[in-house]
Amino acid sequence: MASFKKQTFITLLVTLLFFSANAQQNEFWKSIRYGGGLGLNFGDGFFGATIAPSAIYEFNDQFAIGLGLNATFNNQKNVYKTTVLGGSLIGLYNVIPAIQLSTEFEQLNVSRRYDIRINAPDDKYWSPALFFGVGYRSGNVTFGVRYNVLHDDDKSIYIDPWIPFVRFYF
Predict the structure, then answer these.
(1) Which of 7, 35, 20, 156 has its CA nearest to residue 86?
(2) Of 72, 89, 106, 163, which residue is 20 to 30 A from 149 by alpha carbon distance?
């Protein structure tokens, strides 16, 4: 599986470099869009923070591909601390200017340390996710919902396979 991940990453990187080398430099950089997300969660003894930058290359008005990173920290007081780090491959297709379909493969490394009072072994594992989504797009913003077809109730960092999103690219 690790070999497949390396091959996928290398293939995407070579593809982006190929388009970079064959397109005029100015035209290439005009087609790059940057965006991502920030998240803060607060609750009774709970804190969570996420930073998830991403970049896409727009081939035309309809199709774009890109890469994303994810760093998340969660802390449930006297229960656990979780650090999640990973990346994703993103594909976007605008059926019409206002409707955007998306697919995203995400691979996250989860490291969870439980409080000594919980008497549970620490967790370290990889959590894959494959999302298919649909959204309403207006300018640089898309509002929508995505579904994780690889959702695992025991290992997923997401509580539910259905996840609403707001996506920004500038």
Answers:
(1) 156
(2) 72
